[in-house]
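sorry to bug you again but im stuck and you know this stuff better than me. below you get a single protein, a line of residues and a line of whole numbers that encode the local backbone shape. mainly i need to know what kind of three dimensional shape the backbone takes. anything you notice is useful, everything is just below:

***
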Amino acid sequence: MYFDLESRYNHSCKEVTACQADGLDKKQHIFREVIIMKSVQVSINTVDKVKAFVNDITKFEYEFDLVSGRYVVNAKSIMGIFSLDIRKPICLHINTEENTDEVINALSPYMV
């Protein structure tokens, strides 16, 4: 079986499938990623709050997503945030393998 690079990735698992390349057989390897997601509601309803929020959140290496309805944007992107309706609270997903207490403390001024 041959798969292109994009087709071998799954939602929460990366699966490398068995294939032949240049006459060499490669064994099947399965890599699992354990991702803990914590969700909190944040209110960033002014331009100044958005700028301060992005400055605070970019200090961390974790991945952050803002979810509003069916839209999901990178929380470190000012342009992405302004594409959402910031008049109402937005759900922030923190994707990490580590403890999120430090992040929660830094984001406490924005939490609802």
About this structure: The longest strand covers residues 36-42. Residues 91 and 112 are 10 Å apart (CA to CA). Residues 1-25 have pLDDT under 50 and may be disordered. The longest helix spans residues 47-57.
